[in-house]
Amino acid sequence: MAESPSPRCDIDAVLAAHDRQLLDLPAVVGVYPGVLADGRTPCLKVMLARPTPENERKIPREIEGYPVVTEISGEIRPLRP
Description:
Layout: H1 11-23, E1 28-35, E2 42-48, H2 53-58, E3 62-63, E4 66-72
Parallel strand pairs: 2-4
Antiparallel strand pairs: 1-2, 3-4
């Protein structure tokens, strides 16, 4: 099994370059840099309002060497003053 290439760019730069394409997908409500369950491997987290088959197909498993992880956050709405 081939290993994924090591990330070459800063994770914040990668996120800035790709956040719009991820946020344009249905049910995606947020993206942020995070870490995998091992507590040390950086990854990109994609927050979903709900899981959809379309997102399972369209969200990449890796972007520029960083793993992409989805999590169900539910709808995000602004607080009312």
